[in-house]
Design a protein that fits this description.
Elements lengths: L2 H24 L2 H32 L2
Family: Belongs to the UPF0337 (CsbD) family.
């Protein structure tokens, strides 16, 4: 996983957390849900990148 991808995914996760917190604080269910959705998307991207890295590491060792 490239450093740029890691930074982008982490920033998407942080933005999602901020939206979720703002939605909770303002009692805005749609903003809160949007934040949760963005966090889930960022986490899925991170998991996919980690799987790619693991596969690459496993094939490089051979």
């Amino acid at each position: 996983m490239g450093l740029g991808d890691k930074i982008q995914n982490k920033s998407e996760e942080v933005v999602g957390k901020a939206k979720e917190a703002t939605g909770k604080a303002t009692n805005d269910g749609s903003l809160q849900a949007e934040g949760v959705k963005e966090q889930a998307a960022a986490n899925a991207k991170q998991a996919g990148e980690k799987a790619k890295d693991a596969f690459k590491d496993a094939t490089d060792d051979k």
